[in-house]
Write a structure and sequence with these properties.
Largest sheet: 5 strands, parallel
Oligomer: single chain
Radius of gyration: 23 Å
Structural class: alpha/beta
Helix content: 40-55%
Keywords: Oxidoreductase
GO molecular function, one term: oxidoreductase activity, acting on the CH-OH group of donors, NAD or NADP as acceptor
Strand order of the largest sheet: 6-3-2-7-8
Distance between the termini: 45 Å
Protein name: Mannitol 2-dehydrogenase
Organism: Yoonia rosea
Strand content: 5-15%
Pfam families: Mannitol_dh (PF01232), Mannitol_dh_C (PF08125)
CATH class of the largest domain: Alpha Beta
Length: 499
């Protein structure tokens, strides 16, 4: 990949694809002949660097031209993303960053973006189109209206109450999906596959729970029809895709391309999908995806080691004013914390999957986190800990307590999160709000400085873990040490423990 200086930029569009520099790969298929088959809700960087790339790669083989993606969003802020992408014909420059070398390509599998409307009428109409056979989502782990402690459906949330009362004018993605499925049933059209692409173990089952439970609040017969006829495959997605900021925009311009929303990503990608599609699917396995009837073991390994590992290092990095994930891994203490906790306290509860055993996976994640070309910020990774800790770390604590395996390192990780939520780094600088529940978390973190047990009484995150003495006592000791001796000294105290 050649870096160009002082070059007139080429505005990315269908009309300029042929004019792009020769080392930039681009669609070889006729984009004007593509037709839509997928609506994707929550069209951020990860989707464009992952699922859209798999479909694009299939299209490059002359396949799946009737499966093009229509983007969608249900938040007011999604309108700006739609405008940026529409201005460049929904094309995206993907830049793969690796210490061994980088490449760039333009991906063209997306052909439209539904207008963002308060009542989601355009989105409902698009999903009701019989040509749409898959509706996929990346709406973050916290977007499924779950009770953090029980993982059950939160029927009392104001958004859910709104959609239950006015199902024809929904404010949630799930309400819009239900309204579209209702139209399809009335028209004699079969349902679409509902495909979750978020980092939730059993994500298809969780999506089914949310959609069917919400539908049942207003139309029990429709809920039964959806449950009996739609499909909700579980899946596991993996690729580190940082947010786009000034550095990424400068990088794409250095290639000679004017792209308002480029995506940088690591060279590693993985997509494991349960083969349960009620209305057909693209042959993503021809370009590297894995179809299997047993996604669970893949999910558990990835969510607990990679996503859980991200929380292990990012919270500590925030306290020590380390700005990036690779910078966290360059800190010997944080790196050792990740590797010891993952090996001693997470791996005992994981199974090998085809092509990868757990210890080798920890080594792989350690290398991926250490990629200095990926500028992934600790702030981005540490965001929404109130969803990510219950989803990524607490299951390992529960398994460790049940099996009698060590949990002291995980107790330290939770104490570091509590210390971080107090909102002050060790250098005295403030941590800006970084969680949907930040105010409540910060208030509790400050109270827990004097009485650590209060933190674990947040049952919506910890359930009954505060009553488990082996975990609670370790947590209290670590939190006290973090406040009195600091993050580095506390991590080193854990690392010094034999084993």
């Amino acid at each position: 990949m050649n870096i160009r200086q002082n070059t007139d930029l080429i505005k990315l569009s269908n009309a300029t694809l042929a004019a792009l520099p020769g080392d930039i790969a681009r669609p070889t298929y006729d984009r004007s002949a593509l037709t839509a088959g997928i609506v994707h809700i929550g069209l951020g960087n990860f989707h464009r660097g992952h699922q859209a790339w798999y479909l694009h790669s299939l299209m490059q083989k002359g396949l799946a031209h009737d499966w093009a993606i229509v983007g969608a969003g249900v938040r007011a802020g999604d309108a700006a993303q739609r405008e940026r992408l529409a201005a460049q014909d929904y094309l995206t420059t993907l830049i793969a960053l690796d210490p061994a070398g980088s490449t760039a390509e333009v991906v063209g599998s997306m052909i439209d973006f539904v207008p963002v409307e308060e009542s989601n009428g355009a989105l409902i109409a698009q999903m009701a189109d019989p040509a749409i056979r898959i509706v996929a989502l990346t709406v973050t782990e916290g977007g499924y209206y779950l009770d953090p402690a029980t993982k059950g459906f939160n029927a009392a949330h104001p958004d859910i109450l709104h959609d239950a009362k006015t199902p024809d004018m929904p404010v949630t993605a799930f309400g819009a999906m239900i309204a579209a499925l209702k139209k399809r049933r009335a028209a004699g059209v079969g349902p679409f596959t509902c495909l979750c692409c978020d980092n939730l173990q059993g994500n298809g089952a969780i999506l089914r729970q949310t959609v069917v439970s919400l539908a049942r609040l207003s139309d029990p017969d429709l809920a039964d029809w959806i449950n009996d006829n739609a499909s909700f495959p579980n899946s596991m997605v993996d690729c580190i895709v940082p947010a786009t900021g000034p550095n990424e925009l400068a990088l794409v311009r250095s290639l000679g391309i004017d792209d308002a929303c480029p995506v940088t990503h690591e060279t590693f990608r993985q997509w494991v999908i349960e083969d349960d599609f009620c209305a057909g699917r693209p042959d993503w396995d021809l370009v590297g995806a894995t179809f299997t009837d047993d996604v669970h073991d893949f999910e558990a390994m990835k969510i607990r080691v990679l996503n859980g590992g991200h929380q292990i290092i990012a919270n500590a990095g925030e306290l020590l004013s380390i700005e990036t994930i690779s910078g966290c891994m360059a800190n010997d203490d944080i790196r050792a914390l990740f590797e010891k906790v993952a090996t001693r306290e997470i791996l005992p509860h994981l199974k090998a999957v085809p092509g990868m055993e757990p210890h080798a996976y920890v080594d792989l994640i350690s290398r991926r986190f250490s990629n200095t070309r990926i500028v992934d910020t600790t702030r981005r990774v540490a965001f929404d800990g109130s969803s990510r800790h219950p989803g990524f770390l607490i299951p390992s604590i529960q398994d460790g307590l049940a099996a009698g395996t060590p949990v002291a390192g995980l107790a330290l990780v939770e104490a570091i999160w509590a210390r971080m939520c107090a909102g002050l780094r060790e250098d005295g600088s403030a941590i800006a709000p970084n969680d949907p529940d930040w105010d409540a978390l910060q208030a509790m973190a400050q109270e827990a400085r004097e009485n650590p047990v209060l933190w674990l009484k947040q049952a919506k995150y910890y359930g009954t873990l505060g009553q488990e003495a082996r975990f609670a006592d370790a947590f209290a000791a670590w939190l006290d040490m973090l406040w009195t001796k600091g993050t580095t000294a506390t991590i080193r105290a854990y690392l010094a423990v034999a084993g």
